[in-house]
Design a protein that fits this description.
Mean pLDDT: 95
Order of helices and strands: EHHEEEHEHEEHEEEHEHEEEEEEEHHHHH
Shape: globular
Helix content: 25-40%
Structural class: alpha/beta
Largest sheet: 8 strands, mixed
CATH topology of the largest domain: Purple Acid Phosphatase, chain A, domain 2
Number of strands: 18
Distance between the termini: 50 Å
CATH class of the largest domain: Alpha Beta
Low-confidence stretches: none
Length: 376
Amino acid sequence: MRILIAGDYCPTNRVAKCIEDGEPVFSDAVVQQIKSADYSLVNFECAVSDSTMTPIPKCGQHLGCTVKAVSVLKEAGFTGVTLANNHFRDYGSEGVSRTIDVLENTGIDHVGGGNNITEASQILYKQIEGRNLAFINVCENEFSIADENRGGSVSLDTIDVYHRIAEAHKMSEYVVVIIHGGHEHFQYPSPRMKKLYRFFVEAGADAVVNHHQHCYSGYEMYRGKPIFYGIGNFCFDHPKKRGGIWNEGYMVVLDMTDSGIQPELIPYIQCDEKPIVELMGGQKLQDFWRAVQSISNTICDDKKLYQINEEFIRRRSSALMSPFTPYRNEYLQLAAGRHYMPFLIPQNILAKMLGVIQCESHRDILIESMKEKLNK
């Protein structure tokens, strides 16, 4: 039994035009791989929306697509989508409801999102070739999270995932956990991610697959179970991203047999010179295998992984700290993030901020208070 899992699908820019014009966005070889699987999932990194819908207040882009973009997935052979990601709620509960309606009318399964937290938290159970499977889908906490009164995605809560894994194993032979998280444009998991994803295997997950970073990462076999720390964009066009890690990724195939799960990687190039997803070949493929092996070796070495994360933190710290500076103009914040402006936060104020953020009880109050003010 072959289960295929693909990364972020966001039909924007050139891809959106191809879809509206009826031009292919997946090569025949890619479609063949998708259709050869017994079940296939791709991350739906947007909402079905239109100009009448109001985007939610958030930082970052609002991503939407048309109904045709869903039909393209069905035609390519995808049988399901994951909805736990940071863009599913970009157009509020209306966009969530519209997306779910379109998926269900198209005949595509979904997991990880819903019209409220109860719906969103449901495990997707499938019986395939006489075997029972369960899919659990969650994402790191951003602006897309559902609650009792609004639609959205399921948050990455360690205790909840633990209980869902236990519940799923009562009904299923295999449990696959799919997570949307990690540092964008960084090809390594954080030590936190490695510890957490290994814990999910210890809790009973038979495979863990992660996406979100807009680049591929490595993988490991932990206690005989595969953990993929990042599989890259699947179909996500960006006008300023060509010829780099944004444009490379791999589909994961989990070949489930009586003796266990045998993982397979299917590398591809996406939205580079052409707005299409096509299998990787030639020198690029050889370079890819070397890169994946190198990244995977680093992931398995705790000391090296820690060091490379420390280097990344030093590069990114100023940019992430810029919203806390007195600068309110986005350009001044950008300048501060690139060290062109002084930091201007006194040590005593910085200590108070750290105290509020790092303490779990203080952070609970801070998050809820900020949500309340943002939604007024």
